[in-house]
Amino acid sequence: MQFTDLGLKAELLRAVSEQGYDTPTPIQQKAIPPVMAGHDLMASAQTGTGKTAGFTLPILHRLVSGPHGHLARVTKKPRVLVLVPTRELAIQVEESVRTYGKHLPIVSLAVFGGVGINPQIAGLRRGVDILVATPGRLLDHVQQRTVDLSAIEIFVLDEADRMLDMGFIRDIRKIIALLPKQRQNLMFSATFSPDIRELASGLLHHPVSVDVAARNTAAETVTQRVIETNREQKKDLLLHLFETRGWHQVLIFARTKHGADALSRNLEKAGIKSAALHGNKSQGARTRALSEFKDGKLVALVATDIAARGIDIDSLPYVINYEIPNIAEDYVHRIGRTGRAGMEGEAISLVSHDERAFMRDIEKLIKRTLEREVIPGFEPSAHAAPRPVQPPRGPRKPQQPGKTPNRNAPQKPGGPQLHRSGGRHR
């Protein structure tokens, strides 16, 4: 199947072609037709599957399908609302709208926390077709009466699983209550827990279900391996790997904000251009770090789990788990940053004695035993005494090895309050 077989508007096909694409990914093949037809959608898709284009393309098609289409433009109020968990994802989705809608008279805006609200208010007053928002800042606008959601015709809930992880369920329900009863609803989630399915049952009406990946599985194009060592040797081992393997673009995961900062400083001291990405960074610093990493100006980006959710790089070659996540599903999300859209990638986990139980939980989840490797000079001690793993500060409780986490416990929206960008375009 080609994009030309999907019935999309010529202006959209032109934009897709300009991006160098001609064949839709599986999620795009399955999602685009029912969305174009006006059906509700419940889609399970891992990161890197092309799901953003899977909903932006058919939504753009519907918005310009007038004058006889029921979505012909009649108001300056937002007609599409895309709700996302993080500022980075808001920016990414709005960029996708601008990329594929560049030849259409469509206005889009991303609103999220961490930046001034006044430019967003000005953008909303000028009129917006597609509004991409994080829950906190959107409710700020609702409270200030600077946004009117009464004309929403299509509602997209993206990364619903992470929304619940971050404690946004109450905000989501408040926002849904403000929307018109008659609308099209699209829900995307990497996993569908019982809580997610409960939310879906109250949101979606006779949805088309799309599942393009087995639940909680890692991309087949990602080579996964484990390097066992001592905790105290990890820093020197990582520097050794950079020196001997010629890495040039590496996303490194740390468990805490403090740990990400410290590791980034150590890499810089060793002459490896790097930056840290986490919730305590300003919006400007986060945007700059992501941009420089994508452009190749930074060799390494050290990130925490939540901060990394918005990272979308088509050909990222390496993901390093400097510290193993204490929630097994986070491992799948982490390594899903590489091996995207059919590209090959490599995920390496540096595992110390006190992380082996977490690694066993991960292997149980992904249903495979990963290759172990020992680097000469960095062998793990046979008598290493385990120390308790310190969980990241934030709302989620650490998972105990061998136990299923409660991923939907009540929490505050941690880290940076949502962010917004005034990415308005025609």
Structure description:
The protein has 426 residues and is an alpha/beta fold. It folds into two domains: 209 residues, P-loop containing nucleotide triphosphate hydrolases (Rossmann fold, 3-Layer(aba) Sandwich), CATH 3.40.50.300; 152 residues, P-loop containing nucleotide triphosphate hydrolases (Rossmann fold). α2 runs parallel beside α3 and α3 crosses α4. It is globular, with a radius of gyration of 22 Å. The two termini are 30 Å apart. The C terminus is likely disordered.
Q: How would you briefly describe this protein structure?
A:
By secondary structure, this protein is α/β, with parallel strands linked by helices.
Quaternary state reads: single chain
Number of strands: 14
Helix share bin: 25-40%
Overall 3D geometry? globular
Topology:
Blueprint: H1 10-18, H2 26-36, E1 41-44, H3 51-63, E2 80-83, H4 87-100, E3 108-111, H5 118-126, E4 130-133, H6 135-144, E5 154-157, H7 160-165, H8 169-177, E6 184-189, H9 194-203, E7 208-211, E8 222-228, H10 234-245, E9 250-253, H11 257-269, E10 274-277, H12 283-294, E11 300-303, E12 318-321, H13 328-335, E13 345-351, H14 356-366, E14 371-373
Parallel strand pairs: 1-6, 1-7, 2-4, 2-5, 3-4, 5-6, 8-13, 8-14, 9-11, 9-12, 10-11, 12-13
What descriptive keywords fit this protein?
14 helices; Rossmann fold; globular; seven-stranded parallel β-sheet; 2 domains; disordered C terminus; 15% strand; 426 residues; 35% helix; alpha/beta
